User: Fold these one by one.
Assistant:
Number 1:
Amino acid sequence: MRHLINITDFSTGEIESILDLADQMLSHPEKYRESQRGRILATLFFEPSTRTRLSFESAMLSMGGSVLGFATADSSSTSKGESLTDTIHTVSCYCDIIAMRHPKEGAPLAGSLISEVPVINAGDGGHNHPTQTLTDLMTIRREKGRLDRLTVGMCGDLKFGRTVHSLIGAMSRYEGVDFVLISPPELRVPDYVTSRLRAEGIPYTEAESMESVMDRLDVLYMTRVQRERFFNEADYIRLKDTYILDTDKLRFARDDLSILHPLPRVNEISVKVDADPRAAYFKQVKNGRYVRMALITKLLEQA
Amino acid sequence: MNIDSIKRGIVLDHIRAGRSMDLYRYLHLDELECSVAIIKNVKSNAMGRKDIIKVDEDISIDLDVLGYIDPGITVNIIENGTVREKKHLSLPERLTNIIHCKNPRCITSVEPALDHVFVLADREKGVYRCIYCDSKH
Ligand SMILES: [Zn+2]
């Protein structure tokens, strides 16, 4: 039995096979409409995330399966003091696969150690969010036709952005990938990420503005710069526009750039960019549904 | 107890000077009925000073705990007054409930029944990481 707790639990070969299946499912959804009939997905959201939960439920329903679960911790038995392991024990008797989100780091791993059915980490605090990374990888592969030999720009809050750390980890395994890390000095990628890149001889550059590096990028992964991450309001006001992507900054970009964003966005991508053919972030949402369908299918095959 | 020679038991040699009392606690030697000798600040050619612990009974010792605390220790198993076996230690790959995760965001902070498990991430630097949250120890 396999689980997905951390994106690096899967080899690049396993990831490719999930992405291949997801591509097929997206092209021919009708072929898979009944493929999980009779199977049940439990969505255990100890922390609310409507977007992620709906994406999982939509994936299971699109394959004829059923869903049950809870959307917040207070509607679960945890609020009555039940331990996580007891909850997982119980729920794994009621379903065939579990997607679990929890505010504490490592909770899905703890669940997977005792679960009788596959567990998918749907986000554990600021730690991992591997199905977002699968979505990102699927989008990059569909837009660029490959995952190797790419210059990938990451822009915004690179310090706290777990999707950034996870995507760097996943993309580092492909040949010829070069990272361009664009952030204010306060929100640089943590040391453990860059020291791993250095140790593995993977090239990266750090930059403080998009304009200076835009023409080099194959992919631009935007993230939100949150006000509360700054020490003072003045720094936030001074810096926030630097990390907003608008049509003006896109003048420097290549014609074949792909712009990604894990969403929800606030204002870090101007709505005028939405009409640009290089904007891939709404396709990314759609890809998220199909890559979760493929993941559920692969894990159930091995259960 | 003659501290120079024991008939049957265990001698922990090459303990870093000053660490013998920590070992005494970690290995729960205070709970033993037999005699235990702690010899501190013994002159050593290789180490300058070292500590030695002698236990007058062939007790089973958790070598993982010992290896984690001090991988330089030599464990001598004594039988009939001679060394039957000499064990050299190394840092164990996995530690279960020996060290505890202090990350307040870690699931172990709210689930008392969970084992605290660390795996060796860097043998050279002796770095362990919590399997749940990846925190260093
Ligand atoms: Zn931990």
Number 2:
Amino acid sequence: MSPLVKLSQVNKIYSAGEIPLQALKDIDLEVKKGEFIAIIGASGSGKSTLMNIIGLLDRPTSGSYYLENQDTSRFSQDHLAEIRNKKIGFVFQSFNLLPRTSSLDNVALPLIYAKVSSSERIKKTKKLLKELGLEEKINSRPNQLSGGQQQRVAIARALVNDPEIILADEPTGNLDSKSGAEVMSIFESLHKTGKTIVMITHEEDIAKHAKRVIRMKDGQIWTS
Amino acid sequence: MDILETTRSALTSILANRMRSFLTILGIVIGVTSIILLISLVSGLKTYITSQIEGLGSNLLIVIPGRIGGARSPGGVQANRLEYSDAANLRNRLSDQAQVSAAIQRNAALKFGNKNDKGVAIFGVEATYPKVISLNLTRGRFFKESEQQAAKKVAVIGTTVKSNLFGEGKSIGQAIDVAGLKYTVIGILGPRGAIFGIDLDNSIYIPISAAQRQFGIDRLNTIYISANSAGNVKAVQDRATALLKKRLSEDEFTVQTQEQTLSIISQVTGVLTAALGGIAAISLIVGGIGIMNIMLVSVTERTREIGLRKAVGAKPSDIRNQFLIEAIILSGLGGVIGIILGIGLSLLIGKFFTTTVPLWSVGLSFGFSMLVGVIFGVAPAIRAAKLDPIEALRHE
Ligand SMILES: Nc1ncnc2c1ncn2[C@@H]1O[C@H](COP(=O)(O)OP(=O)(O)OP(=O)(O)O)[C@@H](O)[C@H]1O
Ligand SMILES: [Mg+2]
């Protein structure tokens, strides 16, 4: 079976500063469908940069990225937005929920851009929030939720459009160990249902939950 | 993302910042309110003047000194060569088709006992005047041809003059002091109202012969001609023009029909509407700049939100539409509030002056405020649409 994600010789160079900064160096990476991967590495090693490229938020300076056998370098802005909407679910360290907006509306946001009807949106969103134990927090706003609850709302938002791949950038970074463990158990059960997950972390303990660990240093992959 | 969802999310964000949204649209509110109000005043004025002129009868023609549209200003002192003999000539020659009355006007102070009435319009007219222009006499009578021939000092007074000089007391038969000479009151006119602060009832009518003698005037302000039938108006105008031309040159007089007078008024009010509306429209543009300012602030404030929306699948056009619609809703809301305020104020002022709010002014000002929203919303919306998602998500 061909890989879901295939990066070949990917480089990312930031040339905004005085000296150009090579954030990624000759990255080769394949992610197969259903894999649960942890990317671990020191601060500044290029983990987020790599994830942004996989998530189509950013483009490599050179090298190729095939997603489901399609060359992403040829995608238009609108097509990229559509892929992010349908095939990719992001989970961020700082949750990134819309303020003053209910859990329901936060989770339903990707469905709005997918032009899903209002009744269908509410149905899907409620079901997901229920599965994640947030039944009672459907109408709560982010400032009325604990960190763990906010991250679960964010995971629901990442899942709501049934994406091919979940990309999580330090999802437990802002959480206490108990909430962090909750999040990890959600990821483990998602993995069991066959979801593909790529997760960035600083902590070996968290990385242990993944089935494959990729180590990064100075923009390069060391072990895979 | 469809228009309905975009509108819903724009409304949510407008309502989340109620106070700021209100202050943002204040400029538009003021602009639209003043457009509605000014147009309602001007068109009220036009309606009023038109009804006054039409009230004089559509068969009326007026002869005024000078040429309208000519080099010299109409009624200008040097230009005025219109004499009583011209009016007399017209009356004799047009007697089969029209009634004629010459008129002069002065302002003077009136006295009765210890009561004063200042700035009264004194009209010197002929005994034929009531046949030319309909006057509503509530008491007494108008002066006769014989009284006019003899330059009798008699006066028909307006209601303001009556109440200022006599109050509830008897007025007919009393002698009032008109700029130093005594006139006997013989009739009282019904009320006619005021126009822009000018009280039409603060006036008296006296024989033109007496007025000319007292004030030493030998030129006329106006000759009124009333055609016997509507079908005659044009013929009377042509004949009067031909008759006057025998003695006067073409630019020393104008014979004007009611229709022509009304068209001049509608030209004048049109210019007035455009000028005042234009000034008010400037405040709409200022209001638009206010909206642009706040939208730019809003884009900066919501940079993270924009980044997140892009990450979950918003296209640049979705983001652009969201901010554009927000700007349009803001300006449209300002427009609606302005229209309501403008109509309300115009109704209030309508208690003192005639005001009418034409439908087109409502449509125009609403359309214009929406347009301002589009024009000034575009730049912030495009800025939002162009934001790089990663940088936006990193924004503090
Ligand atoms: N927009 C940018 N412009 C310039 N340099 C950048 C930019 N984004 C990232 N970098 C640099 O690229 C390198 C990799 O950054 P990246 O964010 O991928 O690291 P990271 O591994 O995610 O670190 P952390 O664990 O602290 O999140 C860093 O040296 C960073 O300073
Ligand atoms: Mg990072």
